[in-house]
Recover the amino acids of this structure.
């Protein structure tokens, strides 16, 4: 998941430095018009500063202009903090509507909603990092947020992995329910059955703690293009309000797409 | 302002394809929720002098392109997605007494032609919406004709 606090700090710092660089890019060249030698009275106090600015303009102005551009790009990459706060809020609300607390058994983190973004290339030491991936970017709740999860979403759609990858490949909704319970010494047959139904490799399942027993994937569009997928997973074998998901999504999906346009 | 949009229940339109794995796990595949219209509207556009059937979707509106079917009927599809957004019928040019029947037939013919093009799921769903809301939409047309 995104490191929200770190990213917000980096975004605000980049914003402050960018504004500073913007002011420097304007003020330094303007100082060349000042006749510092003629400064008298209180203005004479600023004489050394103005002279220094005039002498430094030749390198400060171009550096400041480049900095404004680089920091603008960096801020866009980091994402506007308020947008991601709203995305998180929407995922929480979506989770609460699908798994309302009184009738749904289990803890909050047993029923999650995770947003995956499609990236052409991911920065990691993996085979084919440039082949197209769905990377987890935001999740409902306050726990189980540290690990990054990614599924293959290559151009060859048959090789897509996970319910997320299959949702991407199909550009439709995918529901998998009644997955085997792997929480207590699962048999090889259960592991293989889990892997087959969740579109992953059995070794991938064996290496991880796979506790979700029902998974539901929805495509996410931004500016009318496929942007990523939303995955709902639960430790219960069925999602009780599964039939309500399209209706609930019709309320949230449009706003989520509009928010992600700004991200 | 009067709201004439007729709500569409996605559960009635988006029926799953079911598959079962060797281990007995059931997998259901549905169409994209973005391809399912949320509502449909039929109204007479005074400025164009045409009867317009419109569809609204989760992702909102997008730039459209006109796909003329014949001199009296045009379809408007999304430039990006090719989803059906509107059907415009020149009812003034058609005979008033047979207008409902003529329009219904022309729309069905146009939808049949469109449903072979991508996104097929959206076009088939739009045809299904018109079929299911046929009476409500054409009653507005009949009111105009009378």
């Amino acid at each position: 998941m995104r490191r929200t606090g770190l990213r917000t700090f980096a975004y605000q710092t980049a914003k402050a430095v960018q504004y500073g660089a913007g002011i420097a890019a304007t003020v330094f060249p303007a100082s060349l018009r000042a006749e510092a030698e003629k400064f008298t009275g209180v203005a004479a106090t600023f004489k050394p500063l103005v002279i220094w600015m005039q002498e430094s303009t030749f390198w400060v102005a171009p550096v400041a202009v480049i900095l404004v551009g680089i920091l603008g790009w960096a801020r866009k990459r980091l994402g506007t903090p308020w947008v991601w706060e709203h995305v998180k809020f929407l995922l929480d609300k979506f989770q609460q509507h699908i798994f309302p607390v009184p009738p749904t058994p289990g803890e909050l983190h047993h029923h999650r909603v995770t947003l995956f973004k499609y990236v052409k290339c991911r920065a990691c030491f993996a085979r084919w990092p440039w082949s197209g991936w769905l990377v987890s970017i935001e999740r409902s709740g306050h726990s189980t947020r540290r690990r990054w999860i990614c599924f293959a979403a290559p151009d060859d759609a048959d090789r897509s992995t996970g319910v997320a990858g299959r949702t991407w490949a199909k550009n439709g909704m995918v529901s998998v329910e009644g997955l085997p319970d792997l929480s207590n010494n699962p048999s090889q047959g259960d592991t293989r059955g889990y892997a087959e139904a969740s579109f992953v490799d059995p070794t991938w399942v064996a290496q991880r703690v796979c506790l979700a027993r029902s998974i539901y994937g929805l495509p996410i569009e931004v500016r009318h293009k496929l942007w990523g997928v939303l995955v709902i997973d639960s430790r219960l074998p069925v999602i009780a309000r599964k039939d309500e998901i399209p209706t609930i999504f019709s309320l949230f999906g449009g706003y989520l797409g509009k928010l992600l346009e700004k991200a | 302002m009067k709201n004439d949009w007729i709500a569409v229940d996605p559960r009635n339109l988006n029926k799953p394809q079911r598959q079962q794995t060797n281990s007995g796990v059931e997998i259901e595949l549905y169409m994209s929720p973005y391809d399912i219209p949320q509502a449909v509207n039929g109204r007479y556009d005074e400025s164009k002098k045409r009867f317009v059937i419109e569809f609204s979707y989760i992702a909102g509106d997008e730039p459209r392109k006109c796909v003329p079917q014949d001199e009296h009927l045009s379809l408007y599809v999304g430039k990006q997605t090719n989803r059906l957004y509107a059907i415009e019928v020149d009812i003034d040019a058609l005979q008033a007494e047979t207008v409902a029947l003529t329009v219904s037939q022309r729309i069905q013919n146009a939808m049949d032609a469109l449903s072979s093009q991508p996104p097929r799921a959206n076009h088939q769903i739009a045809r299904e919406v018109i079929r299911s809301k046929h009476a409500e939409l054409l009653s507005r047309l009949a009111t105009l004709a009378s």
Summary: Chain B touches chain A through 29 residues (CB under 8 Å). Chain B has a mean pLDDT of 81.
